[in-house]
Every structure is written in structure tokens, then in C-alpha cells.
Protein: Response regulator
Amino acid sequence: MGVLSVLIADDQALMRTGFRLILEAEPDIEVVAEAGDGEQAVALARRHRPDLVLMDVRMPRMDGIAATRELAADGVPVLILTTFDLDEYVFAALCAGASGFLLKDVPCERLVDGVRVVAAGEALLAPSITRRLIDRYTRHTPSRVQTDAVTALTPREREVLVLMARGLSNSEIATTLVLGATTVKTHVGRVLMKLNLRDRVQAVVFAYEHGLVHAAAPDGLGKE
Structure:
């Protein structure tokens, strides 16, 4: 992939400096710009066209959710940085088009790995947090009526979607369904195409909103 260009958006200068030092210690990552608010993040992202934006949620002038919505529309991947006590903002950011999220106290190597994963076009999900977030904000909302797109999925594609929503990786799905990695990748692509979804994060939100899976099951995995 070459050198990854990253824009850091956080209203705390100390946090931006810390993230920059961590990322620029890697030979394949370059921080091309820093923004102190969402409005500046959008403007700088449109100027520099980074491979990824690290986005704080609560910032002045334009918050991270609004900025994420604009950047997602521009096709710029956004990785949200947050804390446990900001669940509602994270869920809103995922719905706005974020490609994933990490906690601000994440180990350095996890931050670096997350940047590489999202920049490569994948979605970064923390399964246990994702289930808790989506359960919290969908349990009081009636599930949407299953659309024609859902009914158009084959039984196998539906199985794959459910496992994606439970936070399983392609390799884990392959093991669970006893399929080859290439076959699983094909199924994932078809699910996203049929449901008109951008990535796995949107697939998780879609599955929970449409009642295909439910969080907080006794085994911690959710159930159909």
C-alpha cells in the first residue's frame, strides 16, 4: 500500500501530539495534517485527501459526528477515537459512516494496527463494545420491517451477515461455517452489494436495526 497518510482531528493538542508520535514512529505511516475541530478536519481532509482520518467525537464548531458524515460522503475513511462514556456518540458516528472506532486508551500497537486495517478498506469493530452499543440504542426502537433486499439474501448469505454482526472476522466465519476464506470473502461482498452497504460496520448496524440479531444474549454472542 506504500506510506499511509493520516489526518488527526482532536480538540486537545496534547492528544494530537501523542497520536502523531505513535503513528510517525512507523515507517509506513505519515501524519499529513492536524485539526482542532470538525470543520477544520473536513477542510484539511478535502485539501490533503488522506488515506484515513482519526476523529475525536466531541469537538467545537463541528463535532466529530457531523464531520464524519461529510467525510464519509467524500469517500474518506474515518476511524473514531472515543471513551466508554460516549456510547451514544459512537453509535451516531457509526450510522454517519465511520469505518470503526477505538478507545483513546488503546495500546499503541492496537492504534497502529487499527489505522492500517481501516486504511486498507476494512471495518474495525470491537465486537463486545459494538454489541453493547447497538443493543443500547436499538432495544427501545422497533425493528424495521425486513426489506426486499434482506429477503433477497440466500440462506448462506444471511448466515454470513449474522456472523458479521456478531463481530466475527472472515477467518472466524470460515471456521464456523466450514468454508474457504475466498468463499467467505465472496459472500461478504455479495451481502454488502445486495444491501447497498459500504462496509462491515454498516452491516452490523443494519443487522441489529432489522432484528436479524439481538445483543445481550446469555452467551454474549447475540442470537437470531
